Amino acid sequence: MTQPLPQTVKGDSASERLQALGLKLPVLAGTTYLVPHRTVGSTIHLSGQLPFKDSELLGQGVVGRDVELETAQELARHAALNALAAAAQAVGDLDRVRIVQMLVFVASTPDFGQQSNVANAASELLIEVLGENGRHARTAIGVAGLPLNTPVEIQVVCTAV
């Protein structure tokens, strides 16, 4: 069964659509070992984003064992929001962000098999906020474990428009 594509939230700009969703972009900082983004030519590679909010990891565990699908989807949306923050930081304005590719890692049991449903939540947020600029190529992968025992990590490649 084909699911309907998510609709862009009402608003003239990506920032207004984000606000209409009751969300705001977090402030991201680099660490000793990495930066939130790196530009090569016209392509911007974002560091993998975890579901942090206000410096707190929102969940831990393995999807299909410790973490329910719906919780994993919410965590994926938070990770995608952090990716949007890194992208906006890279290009200077959320309205200039175009998502090219998203890679979603899901720490899950071998028999879980719904990694794409976890990733759909992140894809939906990108499209709700960015409209056509949020549509992207995507891969969802189940893995044995992720940093800090988080259930979801998202890596994005984007460009400026």
TrEMBL record:
Record field: transmembrane: none
All copies of domain Endoribonuclease L-PSP/chorismate mutase-like, residue ranges: 17-150
Superkingdom to which the source organism belongs: Bacteria
InterPro entries attached to this UniProt entry: Endoribo_LPSP/chorism_mut-like (IPR013813), RutC-like_sf (IPR035959)
Name recorded for this polypeptide: RidA family protein
Record organism: Streptomyces sporangiiformans
